[in-house]
Amino acid sequence: MKPHISLTQFIIDQQRSIPNASGDFTMLLSDIASACKRIAHAVSRGAMSGQLGSAESENVQGETQKQLDIITNDIMVDALEWTGHLSGMVSEEIDEPIVIPEHFPKGKYLALFDPLDGSSNIDINLTVGTIFSILKGREGCNASLEDFLQSGSQQVCAGFVLYGPSTLMILTTGHGVNGFTLDPDIGEFVLTHRNMTIPEDSQEFAINMSNQRFWEAPVQRYIDECMQGRQGPRGKDFNMRWVASMVAEAYRILTRGGIFLYPLDQRQPDKGGKLRLMYEANPIGFIIEQAGGLCSTGRQRILDIQPDGIHQRVPVILGSKSEVERVVDYHQQT
Ligand SMILES: O=P(O)(O)OC[C@H]1O[C@](O)(COP(=O)(O)O)[C@@H](O)[C@@H]1O
Ligand SMILES: [Mg+2]
Ligand SMILES: [Mg+2]
């Protein structure tokens, strides 16, 4: 049987089509892959590690951090700051942009990441993940805050890693979406899902129903109609899922279609939503669009948003094209 293609081989092949590619990007991606292998190990040790549960600290989001939020953040920063491919980083767990230490070279890329996504699931042994977004920076300089405030359509690359029954990296560099499974025998991510595409239609929605009374009218209407099933205006029954891990929802949708909504919450309309634009909505949105789906706030394409802050939050509606179009249409009708 032909051996699987490794992640590094796959990226080098892709880079061959880019004139004067320096190899920096390939090396940056393999640094990120190494960090995620270490996170996979840390997460898989579960209660044996003594690192489950909450830390005594809060992050800039006002959320009590899990010990593994901090540990996975440190793994990412330690693995990336010295490599010479980055001029700056942003993490969900750190208030300010992360500066590359004085004595390390400053590279041409910027990395933005959510080191542990779905962290409310870590203590109950459910799937969690890491999400990352790569933007162009200014080589040789320490990145300024403004350098990071680029719209999602400027992303060079986006990916997420799922730490589930198997460890999977889902990746796009703007040429479709591919999936790589971590082969524990050789410690390599190998190509197992080529050119993933999202089915256009779907009968499965994911939303945290406990927030229903705080949703805006267009979302209320969309979910009501799904719940009415074949007796209602949609004329077909819908199934519901909620994993409380955005990475797991995104992977399910890449695999069998569906729609995921974390809409605006009228409890705190000025908050702008729950999920973060720069290291959750933009990277996942880039992947979903590259697989033929859509990603919107309900009123705007997520990748067109001009960011005004590195921890900015947005409403997120993503997945199968026809379903997202319907929710956007309901917003336009109000
Ligand atoms: O707790 P809720 O309201 O169900 O929210 C779940 C959502 O929050 C998140 O866990 C937020 O991400 P973090 O765990 O990285 O903070 C998403 O992964 C998930 O979709
Ligand atoms: Mg997250
Ligand atoms: Mg997180």
UniProtKB/TrEMBL annotation:
One of its GO terms (cellular component) is cytosol. The keyword DNA repair does not apply. One of its GO terms (biological process) is sucrose biosynthetic process. Binds 2 magnesium ions per subunit. This is Fructose-1,6-bisphosphatase class 1. It holds the Pfam family FBPase. Its main location: cytoplasm. Keywords: Carbohydrate metabolism, Cytoplasm, Hydrolase, Magnesium, Metal-binding. The gene is fbp.
